[in-house]
Structures are given as structure tokens and as C-alpha cells.
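Bumping with the actual sequence this time:
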Amino acid sequence: MISKEMIEERKESLLGDLSKVRAQGSELERQKLENIALQNALTGAIQQCDDFLKKLGNESSDVENNES
């Protein structure tokens, strides 16, 4: 037979589990935001490299044009 105490114990256990899952969700959300920030930083660094390469390409073209 199921008693009131058994149900209350089960409920307390479930509340504990819910609290843990919510905490994990918060941690995952924090990690997701950090990941997005890192992706943005890496994308910016790649764009900067592309810009530098473009400028170097233009400089070498300018040097070649001036040598003619």
C-alpha cells in the first residue's frame, strides 16, 4: 500500500532532481553564450586576416605597378 509519507518522499526526490536539471540548463545556456561569443571572436579574427591579406595583395600589386 502507498502511504502519504512515501508520496511526499518521492515528491521531495523529484523536486531535487528538477532543481539539478534546472541548474544544468542554466550552465548549458551560459556555455552556449560563451560559445557564441567565441565564434564571433574567431569570425572577426578571420575577417581581419582576410583584410590584411587583401591589403598585402594590393601592396604587392602597387609595387609591381610602380616597377613597370
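The C-alpha cells above came from a reply further down the thread. Helices lie at 4-67.
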